[in-house]
Amino acid sequence: MKQIKNHKNIAAIFSITLFISILFFFPFFFKNSEKTLKEVSGPLVTMEDCNIFIRITGQEDSIPLEEYVVGVVAAEMPASFHLEALKAQAIAARTYVLKSTNYGQTPIEPTVLRQVFYDEDTRKSNWQATFEENEGKIREAVESTKGEVLKYNGELITAMFHSMSNGRTESSKNYSGVDLPYLQSVVSADFQTENYVVKKKWTLDEWNRLLKVNMTLDDIKKIRTKLNNTGRVEKVNFGTKEWTGREFRDLLDLRSTDFTIAVVNNKIEITTEGYGHGVGMSQYGADAMAKQGRTAHQILAHYYKDTTIEKMMCTK
After folding, report:
1. Average pLDDT along the chain, 316 residues, taken 10 residues at a time
2. Where is the Sporulation stage II protein D amidase enhancer LytB N-terminal domain (predicted)?
3. Which partner for 163 in 29, 70, 252, 276 could form a disulfide, CB atoms 3.0-4.6 Å apart?
């Protein structure tokens, strides 16, 4: 019995020693594991702790993200627009640049192919006497939405936008062949805006030179267009010659792919409706919605389906 008792005592001492060792070493193990995780993914921090700079093609110095957004909103949307529309533009512009540059890792062009950007000197030159008023309004829109971005299923979206639609926005599938669930066609109340309908004319020689064809005025009347489900031109056909609506728009520098062709007084006349590619948020539509009492978040929810607006998080 004594021998058994001694074995019990030894087992008890071993168990106590093991328990104390675990208590002593566990914090160090947990700390090292946590460090390893941080080294792999980086700790999440709030927007205020991020230090993201945007590199603009052709400019030597990088620009802090929010200053970049100020320059884009000033260039892309009239300062006279409703504040809520400007806020919506700020969120869309911020999302677009972060997505397209991988959070500032690659440069972005300051053109309509990406996002137009005006620096402070350009803004002063453009606005002159109204600079202080307009600058204050733009900065309010940007600062009040600081760090806000659009996401779909937890990922930044490609937040495309355009000037004005033709009563409906264009889907990404119609535009590029890529069907994105958040870039679907929606009704847009901007078809009553000024300069919604624009006419443009060419002589027959100009027309043939631009399209690299040899048509007569009678041939122009034989041109046929095929429309897609948003009322925009999908195909332009003449005999064996065919263009997509986008190709035709680019060749003739049209405002949109919603157009009709006619011969008027021995000239070719094209009438366009809307302005831009039509995908994503319509800027004039956003202004119309804001004037109807919609907030920036409501505007964005309308144009970018099933998206969420979140405060940007980054790793540091």
Report:
1. 43 46 40 32 48 92 96 97 98 97 95 94 98 98 97 97 95 96 94 82 97 96 96 95 96 97 97 96 96 97 98 66
2. 62-152
3. 276
Q: What is the DSSP string of the chain?
A: -HHHHHHHHHHHHHHHHHHHHHHHHHHHHHHHHHHHHHHHH--EE-GGG---EEPBTT-SS-EEHHHHHHHHHHHHS-TTS-HHHHHHHHHHHHHHHHHHHTTTTS-B-SSTTS-----HHHHHHHHGGGHHHHHHHHHHHHHTTTTEEEEETTEE----EESB-SSBPBPHHHHHS---TTS---B-S-TTSTT-EEEEEE-HHHHHHHHT----HHHHTT-EEEE-TTS-EEEEEETTEEEEHHHHHHHHT-S-S-EEEEEETTEEEEEEESBS--BSEEHHHHHHHHHTT--HHHHHHHHSTT-EEEE--EE-
Q: Which two tokens stand for residue 302?
A: 């309308």
243 in a structural domain: yes
- Please indicate, yes or no, whether residues 158 and 104 belong to a single structural domain of this protein: yes
Q: What angle do CA 193, 117, 64 make, to 5 degrees?
A: 130
Q: How far apart are CA 271 and CA 186, in angstroms?
A: 23
Which among 204, 147, 152 is positioned nearest to 179, based on CA atoms?
152
Best CA proximity match to 258, nearest among 280, 237, 234, 232: 232
- 83 and 225 share one domain: no
Rounded Cα distance between 51 and 231, Å, is 44
Based on the domain organization, do 287 and 149 belong to the same domain?
yes
Question: Which residues constitute the domain of residue 241?
Answer: 197-273
